[in-house]
Each structure stands twice: as structure tokens, then as C-alpha cells.
Amino acid sequence: MKQIMIISHNIFAEGIKSACEDMLGPQNDIMTIGFTNSMEFEKNISNKLDKILDEDELILLFDSMRGTPCTFVIEMLRKKNISKKSLLLTGINLPVLEQIICYKEEMSLEELKDKVMQLATISIVGTTLSFQKNGVL
Predict the structure, then answer these.
(1) How far apart are CA 36 and CA 30, in angstroms?
(2) Model pTM?
(3) Which has more confidence, 16 or 53?
């Protein structure tokens, strides 16, 4: 079984899970952890990682690659020897989370990573808006 854990600064993880649930329904199997205090964060991460079964694979989704939550968890994965059966993705957004939920049991971690990376390149779009007196063009 694949377990999903969203890890972020502050309340971002819970917020993106909640937004996803608005579209896909309850996601009780997704774990969320927000970094606010390093001592509490360490205990919370350790407890959640200890609940991962040996046969489970872990999908870790982070808000930022270079932030404290990501670097801390990577080190903890190494110590607990979980890193070999884990997929780590940073820069999580709502379209990516939805795809992970929909395909996590159908694809291997490598296939899932490839699918998500393809989606990531099109899920963020830049544009400019032109405003006229009577509305947006």
C-alpha cells in the first residue's frame, strides 16, 4: 500500500488536503504535518514514520525543497532506513495532489513520479491581464 504524507511550513499541508477533499471527498488516509516548532515537528514526524509498515511505500509531498521540513525529513528517512521505498516530491500543488491520489495504487512510484513531473510542467501557467474600462480582456 502507498501512504501519502504532506509536509509543509505552518498550515499549508492541512490546507491543501482540505482543498483536495472539497473536490475528491474525504481523504482520511493522507497524513499532514506542518512545521511550526522543531521539537514538536520531530516528534510528530517520528511517530508518523513509525506507523509505516515494512511493506508500505511512502509518498512524501513537500511545499519547498530547501526548507527545514524537507531537509529534516530526508535525514530522518535515512536514519529509519525508509528512503529506498519512498517518493519525495517538492513544490506540491492541487492538480498534482489530485493526480497522486487518483493514480497512486495503479502505478509504481517511478511511474507516478513520471506522470506527476509531466503534469507539473503544465499545471503552472503564467499570463498577464489587460484591464479596460469595462472589464478584463
Answers:
(1) 19
(2) 0.87
(3) 16
CA 69 – CA 63 distance, rounded (Å): 9
Q: How far apart are CA 60 and CA 49, in angstroms?
A: 11
Q: What is the mean pLDDT of the chain?
A: 90
What letter does residue 84 receive in the DSSP assignment?
G
In total, how many domains does the chain have? 1
Q: Express each pLDDT in 86-102 by its tens digit.
A: 999 999 999 999 999 99
Cell readout for 5 is 504524507
**Which domain covers residue 114, as residue numbers?**
2-136
Question: Residue 86 and residue 109: Cα distance in Å, rounded?
Answer: 8
C-alpha 126, offset from chain centre: 22
Q: How far is CA 61 from CA 5, 22, 74, 94, 103, in A?
A: 6, 19, 12, 11, 15
